[in-house]
Specification:
Elements (H helix, E strand, L loop, with lengths): L5 H11 L8 H22 L3 H10 L3 H13 L2 H29 L9 H4 L6 H19 L7 H7 L3 H12 L3 H28 L2 H7 L9 H44 L4 E8 L2 E7 L7 H10 L6 E6 L4 E4 L7 E3 L5
Parallel strand pairs: 2-3
Antiparallel strand pairs: 1-2, 3-4, 4-5
């Protein structure tokens, strides 16, 4: 069975356990990098820039207290478990707050409806949990094995921690509370997966024995700890399963709606910027010069093509949003802030 020595355990605790004092090097590094990562991620999401968002992933230090939670669980160090959990929670709230602040400053007219960085983080699925489990395993493995620690930047890019929180903050300011909860669920999925796989990897590598040899405080490890971690992962898998089914249904709905929307827009020489579906609601972005095609005509065309049970949200240039509920032949105009 693979194992680590006392030197490796000391290296891991030094790397993962952030000091209590806010003025300590590890604490100032964590909070400083976290604030910068939150600003970079929020700006990248607002600008719909994948490269900028990846930069935020590399800078973000949230992986440290999350893996620290796993190590503390293995060592049965209750005080460190609580401290690492509070750091994760406090850090998450700080990123959301920064995202909300930037959202109030920017406030796009379409409420991020056509933003690819947002849309990719508001529909978590089971495949996201699988990817997070694999990524968490690699992260813990890289910490245990000093000879492969150079892979950690790749792990930081593979796991999405700060960007979903930034999206949550931005969507809260846009009034899209359900989508904000979905991006928060993606973050929670990644956290649970990292803690679960980190705990298993640290146990397999005999961290407890090496910690005792190095003189570290090691409490009694109970089997219920693994049960609790596994239960959390299973509980998160439930909404992810629902999300997987919803995403498949929405993709099919969007594919059916696109040709209908393009035919409708062609009558007024307008262009379809985007066709999406969110939780059974067809969301269409349209670009063009006045006069605009009648939204009621699109509603009727969708009804004729078997989509009468789907609500329609139509975003037009200039920030106006037309809401056309299912089973009606009327549309109402809503302000972008409320859309």
């Amino acid at each position: 069975m693979p194992s680590v020595d006392a030197v490796a355990v000391q290296r891991m605790t030094d790397a993962l356990f952030i000091e209590r004092s806010l003025r300590s090097p590890s604490s100032t590094r964590f909070w400083g990098l976290l604030v910068l990562a939150a600003v970079i991620a929020s700006a990248g999401v607002v600008g719909d820039s994948t490269a900028t968002v990846i930069g935020a992933m590399i800078v973000a230090p949230l992986m440290t207290p999350i893996l620290g939670s796993a190590l503390a669980l293995v060592l049965a160090d209750r005080s460190q478990v609580v401290r690492c959990a509070l750091l994760v929670l406090g850090g998450a709230l700080a990123v959301v707050a920064i995202g909300m602040l930037l959202g109030w400053i920017v406030s796009p007219p379409d409420a991020f409806a056509s933003n690819s960085q947002v849309s990719s983080r508001i529909s978590p699925r089971l495949i996201d949990l699988l990817a997070a489990l694999a990524t968490g395993t690699v992260g813990a493995f890289a910490l245990v094995r000093a000879d492969i620690s150079d892979t950690l930047p790749g792990v930081a890019i593979a796991i999405s921690l700060v960007p979903p929180l930034a999206v949550t903050g931005l969507l809260i300011t846009a009034g899209r509370y359900h989508d904000a909860s979905e991006s928060a669920l993606l973050f929670a999925t990644n956290v649970a997966a990292i803690v679960a796989t980190g705990t298993v990897v640290f146990l397999v590598y005999g961290i407890r024995t090496a910690a005792q040899q190095s003189g570290l405080r090691v409490g009694r490890f109970h089997g219920w700890t693994l049960v609790a971690v596994a239960t959390v992962v299973l509980l998160i898998a439930v909404p992810l399963t629902t999300g997987t089914v919803t995403v498949a249904r929405d993709r099919s709905l969007a594919a059916e709606a696109r040709p209908v929307a393009e035919k409708w827009a062609a009558t007024g020489k307008w262009q379809i910027a985007s066709v999406d579906a969110r939780n059974g609601i067809i969301v269409i972005g349209v670009l063009g010069l006045p006069p605009q095609p009648a939204p009621t005509a699109l509603r009727a065309a969708l009804d004729r093509n078997g989509m009468a049970d789907a609500d329609l949200e139509l975003h037009l240039v200039g920030g106006r949003t037309h809401w056309c509920p299912a089973d009606t032949d009327t549309c109402t105009v809503r302000d972008a802030e409320r859309s």
